[in-house]
Design a protein that fits this description.
Its main location: membrane. With 288 residues, the protein is mainly α. Helices cover 74% and strands 0% of the residues. The protein has eleven helices and no strands.
Amino acid sequence: MADIVWRAHGGVRRSTRAWRVRTSAVIVAAVVLAVLVVPPLVNLDEQAVDLAAKLRPPSLAHPFGTDDVGRDLLLRCVYGLRVSLLVGVVAAVVATVIGTAVGALAAASGGWVDRIVMRLVDVFSSVPHLLLGIFIVAMFRPGVWPVVVSVALTHWLSTARIVRAEVLSLRARPYVDAAISGGASRLRVAVRHLLPGVLPQAGLAAVLMVPHAIWHESALSFLGLGLPTHQASLGTLVQSARGSLLAGDWWPTLFPGLFIIVPTLAIAGLAGAWRERINPRRRSELML
């Protein structure tokens, strides 16, 4: 009887997990389709001001309502999500490349090089990401690329640790020892044996980093240190809607907030399914 209950419970868990993965995949596909298709097809200026239509609630003409100067919020959210995804994906890729290079260098070199590199990683990890990001962005004019640089330079640390641990694990494998004993060069061992084993973990770290990068960009833009206030991003949309929220107009804050939360949770859900597939015995969270 207990075995039947356990199997039924396991089946429910698998069914729930599969439903979550499918839902996340649908949301991510819809997001990608929206940011790629909506701007070219919709012949509207997302910066167009219509004071006669300001702060209108959601309707058929404006499904998300309008903001305090009459701009369509749905179109503004799509453009903002487009910018946030650009920042998130580019910053995640750059941070993954940096972290992979640093982690592989530390593990391959060993000795004092490994100790110095990892101590530097510990030092940078002790500083909060947002505080360090604010310091980096403050040195440049507001724009997309300073935010990308800020996010990339504050999010490679965990990837370096993950890659270092994976390289150290792979170096202890018998086939790597056999390749070294057979006279293979370090470059050949790295390219043929170590790199293929590291790439899945590095790719997973990059995907998991995208939601963090979007949240980071939104926080910087909300503080007025990210993108210019006239440029649509999810952080600037939430920041500019604070006055409307105090006046009782909820839609200028709700919909940009949902555009931040829902897609990032969907990406994280797909990344979690990928993590379980490549390493089903270890389901601990990757702290990025």
